[in-house]
Amino acid sequence: MAIPVSKPLSLSGLLSEPLPDPLALLDIGLPAGPPKPQEDPESDSGLSLNYSDAESLELEGTEAGRRRGEYVEMYPVEYPYSLMPNSLAHPNYALPPAETPLALEPSAGPVRAKSTARGEAGSRDERRALAMKIPFPTDKIVNLPVDDFNELLARYPLTESQLALVRDIRRRGKNKVAAQNCRKRKLETIVQLERELERLGSERDRLLRARGEADRTLEVMRQQLTELYRDIFQHLRDEAGNSYSPEEYALQQAADGAIFLVPRGTKVEAAD
DNA sequence: CACTGATGTCATTGA
DNA sequence: CTTCAATGACATCAG
């Protein structure tokens, strides 16, 4: 009894405190069986009892706050065994564990041994469904189309808390699949982006090489131009037979292709 | 024991 | 307005 139940076990107390392990509740609802040790593997959610797990037990997250009340209501119901799936349709079918202060009898409390691990028989929701005597399998709860799902719900007289659990199971199940798909997409996106990165890296290398090549070509052409200038200016003479200085004069080509020798700093006019 | 990837869950958001 | 899928964030577990 590690859950300190110092407060009076009132309904309000139930509403404000996480309920103990649903499988502890299961013990109450089941026909007398062999006495279970407190650490009965089945009685644990499979997770250690930290805060999130504690609240995940039965009152899972939001519902703990938002719908907690629904789990507390309990209407005794006679199950139409004839309607039930074979595995569940038997006279021993017990009502869902009464959601009464009795349920507060903790199976072990916050320091319960971590006896079940992920992967042990049944998911947490499957165990919750079992504990709450949900008369149909969780995979149906999760995978049935909306209409079929509603039809299924209509076939059984469920308590409010059972209904709430079933809806949560469906929501969690759907979200679990959505999360799996989401992660798959994310990984695919990463792979795709890595490929794109590789492609762009290659493209960058190619462009860098092309630029180097162009730079080299440009340098060669500059040298050729310099030599050409030198050659031309070596042969150019003014009326007095003096050579022109390449520092003071430049060669320019007009639009019509004619070549002019002009003082640097001036521009050849367009020829008509 | 710390780290990391996988998985489940919850809250939120946009369609 | 309600429902639901997608997704970020967090917790837990296993290796």
Automatic annotation (TrEMBL):
Occurrences of domain BZIP (ranges): 165-228
A Pfam family assignment: bZIP_Maf
InterPro entries: bZIP, bZIP_Maf, bZIP_sf, NFE2-like, TF_DNA-bd_sf
Keywords (A to Z) from UniProt: Activator, Coiled coil, DNA-binding, Nucleus, Transcription, Transcription regulation
UniProt KW DNA-binding keyword: yes
Residues covered by region (Disordered): 26-64
Annotated coiled-coil segments of the chain: 183-210
PANTHER family, per database record: NUCLEAR FACTOR ERYTHROID 2-RELATED FACTOR, TRANSCRIPTION FACTOR NF-E2 45 KDA SUBUNIT
Similarity-based family: Belongs to the bZIP family. CNC subfamily.
Record-given protein name: Transcription factor NF-E2 45 kDa subunit isoform X3
Species: Vulpes vulpes (Red fox)
Gene name, Swiss-Prot/TrEMBL: NFE2
